[in-house]
Records
---
Amino acid sequence: MFQVGNFVSFHSLHDEFDYVNDVERFIDDTSFYEVLEILDDIIMVKSLSMGRDIPVDINEYQIHTKESLRDHIKSKNHKYAAICNKIKQLYRKQEFKFQGV
C-alpha cells in the first residue's frame, strides 16, 4: 500500500498491463504524484509538474508506488516472460528461420 510522502501512479481498475513489454521503461514513462494526505476514501496528491493539490477517490483507480507497480506487472506477465526470453535466445542464435505465409 502507500503512505503519506510516497509517490504513486494511477491506473484504470481494468488495466491488465498485458501491453507492457519493457517494465522499466514503462515505469520511467509513468507520472507519479506525491501523497499529501490520506482520508477515508480520498487521498490528496500533489502533481510534481503543476504543483497543486488534487483529490483522488481511491475506489476509482489502481494506485501503485514504483515498487508495487514493478511487482504487479512482473507478476501479471511472468507467464509470457519465459516464452519471450526463449524466442529472443533462438533469434540470437539463428537456430530457426521464419517461414513465409
---
Amino acid sequence: MKKIKAIMPVLLPLIITLSLYLVFYSKIECKPTDAGFWLIMALGMSVGVVLTRFSLMSKINKTDSE
C-alpha cells in the first residue's frame, strides 16, 4: 500500500496534463502561436518528468535493497 502512495505524486502531473489534452483535443492546433502547442509541449515535459522520477525511484530502491 505504501508503494501506491509513492507512485501517485509521480503520475499526478501526467494525469492532469493528459486530461487537459483530452478535454481540449478538438480545439488544439499545433501552431506555435496557439495555446494548444504549449499544451502539447507541457504533455511531453510531464512525460519526461515521470520517466525521470521513475528512474530515480528505481535507483533508490536498488541501493536500499543492497
---
Amino acid sequence: MVILYIIILLLAFPTGYLLAYLARDELIAGKKWFLLLALASLISSIALSFMNFSFKFPSILALFFIIMISLMAIWKSHDKKWTK
C-alpha cells in the first residue's frame, strides 16, 4: 500500500510538467496563484493531520499532490526558454 502512495506522489512530476506545458502562457501571470495554492494546500494538510476522520491520509496525499504540481509550475515559470 505504501508503494502505491509513493507512485501516486511521483506521478505529480509528469502531471505538473504536462500542466506547465499546456499552460505556458499562463505561468508568468499565474505564478502568485500557484504559490498561493501551494501554501493553502500545505496549511490545509497540516490542519488535516490534527483532525480525526476516516479519509485523513488520502486527503493529505491529494493535498501534497497539489503542492507538487504547483511547485513544478512555479519552477517552470522561471525558465525563460519554457515560457513565451
---
Amino acid sequence: MQSENRFFDDLSKIINGAAGTVAGMTREFESNAKERAKEWIGGLDFVSREEFETVKAMAAQAREQVVALEARLAALEGTAPDAAAKVKPKPKAPKAQN
C-alpha cells in the first residue's frame, strides 16, 4: 500500500509541476502578446478623440461656409438659389469598350 501511495504522490507532484509550468507559460504568452499588440497599434496612424472632434468641427464650419458662399454667389449672379439647385450637370456618355 505504501508503494501505491508514493506512486500517486509522485504523480500528483509531477502533474502540479506541469500545471504550474503551463500557467506560467500562459501568463508569459499573454504579456508578450499584449506587448506586441501595443507596438503594432502604436505604429499605426491613429488619432485621438480630441483631434477627431476638432477636425469634425472644422469640417462642419467649412460646410456652413460653402452654403453661405453658394448663396452669395447665386445672389451676385442674379439667380435664385432654387434655380441653381435645379441645374444638374449632364452625365458623360460611357466610353465604348473594345
